[in-house]
């Protein structure tokens, strides 16, 4: 079935946010007196809901995870100056091309909705992104299928008409759980091996190559 909608992850797929996120994670752990974690350890959790990220880094109670969540957002807002999260090469041009070809382009991310909307505005992509769905818009975040299924329901489309694109196994599993085609990008936070293990239908090294994955 022909692809009608492309559902994109944000962090590590559209925006190069790894440095900002991992630095903020490490600062959060330090300020709360929790064991330090390396940049690499923090990067491997990107893609999960934020509280789950901290639980993976350090076993903790829900109360402590909530404290991490609150402090992270405070520090993130302080550090998130204009230009702190640039788009990866080819992202803006390719999204415009997809839109101009009649494809619906959306975002489904573990980031909260208002943060996604702010980045879309900063990158001047509002005319080309038809729907934004953040972690606070669903009950079950990725790798659960809910973000994809909720997006498809909004447009009255079927899983076979969708391509889910992301940089981690969490994104690929979300798409597979929903029954869509999936595409992994190798330039983000995950590895090619992780994407292969998650059974991505396509794996690309540059965002512009996404057009080769459309049926």
UniProtKB/TrEMBL annotation:
GO annotation terms (biological process): DNA repair
GO terms of molecular function: phosphoglycolate phosphatase activity
Alphabetic keyword roster: Hydrolase
Record Pfam families: HAD_2
Catalyzed reactions per annotation: 2-phosphoglycolate + H2O = glycolate + phosphate
InterPro entries: HAD-like_hydrolase_sf, HAD-like_sf, HAD-SF_hydro_IA, HAD_2, HAD_sf, PGP-like_dom2
EC number(s) stated in the UniProt entry for this protein: 3.1.3.18
Top-level class of the enzyme under EC nomenclature: hydrolase
UniProt KW Transcription keyword: no
Record pathway: Organic acid metabolism; glycolate biosynthesis; glycolate from 2-phosphoglycolate: step 1/1
UniProt family annotation: Belongs to the HAD-like hydrolase superfamily. CbbY/CbbZ/Gph/YieH family.
Name assigned to this protein: phosphoglycolate phosphatase
Source organism of this protein record: Segatella oris F0302
């Amino acid at each position: 079935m022909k692809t009608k909608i492309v559902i994109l992850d944000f962090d590590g797929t559209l925006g190069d946010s790894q440095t900002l996120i991992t630095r903020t994670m490490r600062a959060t752990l330090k300020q709360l007196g929790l064991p330090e974690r390396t940049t690499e350890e923090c990067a491997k959790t990107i893609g999960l809901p934020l509280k789950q990220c901290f639980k993976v880094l350090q076993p903790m109670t829900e109360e402590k995870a909530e404290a991490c969540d609150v402090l992270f957002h405070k520090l993130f807002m302080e550090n998130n100056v204009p230009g702190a999260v640039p788009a990866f090469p080819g992202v803006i041009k390719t999204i415009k091309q997809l839109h101009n070809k009649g494809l619906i382009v959306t975002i489904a991310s573990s980031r909260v909705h208002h943060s996604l909307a702010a980045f879309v505005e900063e990158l001047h992509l509002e005319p080309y992104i038809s729907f934004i769905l953040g972690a606070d818009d669903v009950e079950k975040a990725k790798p659960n299928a809910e973000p994809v299924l909720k997006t498809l329901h909004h447009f009255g489309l079927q899983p076979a008409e969708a391509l889910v694109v992301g940089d981690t196994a969490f994104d690929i599993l979300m798409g597979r759980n929903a029954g869509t085609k999936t595409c992994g990008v190798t330039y983000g936070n995950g590895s090619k091996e992780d994407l292969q293990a998650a059974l991505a239908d396509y794996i690309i090294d540059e965002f512009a190559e996404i057009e080769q994955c459309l049926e």
